[in-house]
Amino acid sequence: MEGIKVEETKPQQAAKSEKQNQKKPAEGRAMRTGGKKKASGVIPSEPIAGVRDFPPEEMRKRTWLFDKFREVARVFSFQEYDAPVLEYEELYTRKAGEEITQQMYNFVDKGDQKVSLRPEMTPSLARLVIQKGKALMVPVKWFSIPQCWRFETVTRGRRREHYQWNMDIIGVKEVTAEAELLAAIVAFFKSVGLSAKEIGIKVSSRKVIEKIIDDLKIPKEVFAQTCIIVDKLDKLERADVVQQLVASRLIDTLSVKSIEELGALIGEEHEAVKELQKLFWLAQSYGYADWIQFDASVVRGLAYYTGIVFEGFDRTGGIPRAICGGGRYDRLFSTYGAKDIPSCGFGFGDCVIMEILEDKKLLPSFAPKIDDIILAFNEELRPAANELAMALRIQGRAVEIVLGEGKKLKWAYSYADRLGADRVMLIAPDEWKERKIRVKDMKKQTDKDENQYDVLYDDLVKQ
Ligand code: HAM
Q: Which EC number(s) does the record attach to this protein (predicted)?
């Protein structure tokens, strides 16, 4: 069988380096030389460290995943939008010390404009909503699947580019919006075969932290900063955190494990408690109560969240990174000089979920689907092969014409085998004189005569 010869060492090195990368990020990173020129005139065949190629076999997986995202968005009646991957840098420059602002792929363009590849979609969404202004009917229920860029430490489930399914509801102040978003996330998990035993969503509210900050008379301006520190709790020593937060009351509050306990601590009538209670009550009617759990330590790492926050995680302990995350951001628009609109949404990356689905063997087979392969016995008969192919393609069949000259029938059979095609059709001189085509049914691996037959062109294209 013919095939393209490739330098064997490169894919092997890439796979090896990727594996090492997953185990020991620091060492792996040092090993990856993607982007460096080896010798003059020779470009590296690997992509830049932390970013991915999507050859057809990977592209099929991606398309499958995106189709699942899109289908959930459709049944929840969200409209798809997009925005440029290149944005004004100032859209992302917030002062709360978020990781995301330190991870930007930013540069000054040739027009002296400070720009950045988008690390997330929410600021672009806000820009679009501000741009549309009053012409926009609320609530806005929009979704998108943008590629986002962050100069992250590359580990399992975290890369320097990722696709992120975003669903946002703009213009609803009630927790009914968060309940709807969580329903969509759970619908997605179910659609890919995951259950509440395997996946959980931790839910809390930033209003809890806001209340403690208020009680402790900590200035309101440090609210966002406090949330960022709290988000890193598991990565820091408690003593450091205590020092950073000045008071340990906050940490005590964050270890609260139920909404009842939270009520006892900050008051039954507090807005945060009321909203969380309502959300958990609504979850029952949606049928996803067993998927969500209250966890006061969840705050999310972005500065703009103001209310309910949530993150999906692997209950079986596979990858310790959030599968998805989101929350309410009622005060983002005013940071762009516009009037605030109550908003909430989530981002759901493509990396962690694919790892989980692969680990749990939940990915379907992604073989390309080719129906027919057509071979012309000689070049004189090629026009007949093309004619037949076009007639079958109009019917919606996926048809491949053998394009190389002088290919033998045996070659076409093994090619069809490799591609998993249903049929091989031969345009042969004697048969074609009678407008007949020799067909071999590749799926019937029985007797030679049973799976081969001649059929009239007109009958074949009529089927
Ligand atoms: P985020 O928590 O920064 O939120 O990211 C959301 C999700 O994107 C994460 O849970 C993860 O699935 C994925 N993700 C983030 N960074 C990476 C990375 N380096 N590699 C792979 N996956 C990653 C946001 O971005 C918010 N803008 C989401 C949002 C939308 N909130 C409201 N609306």
A: 6.1.1.21
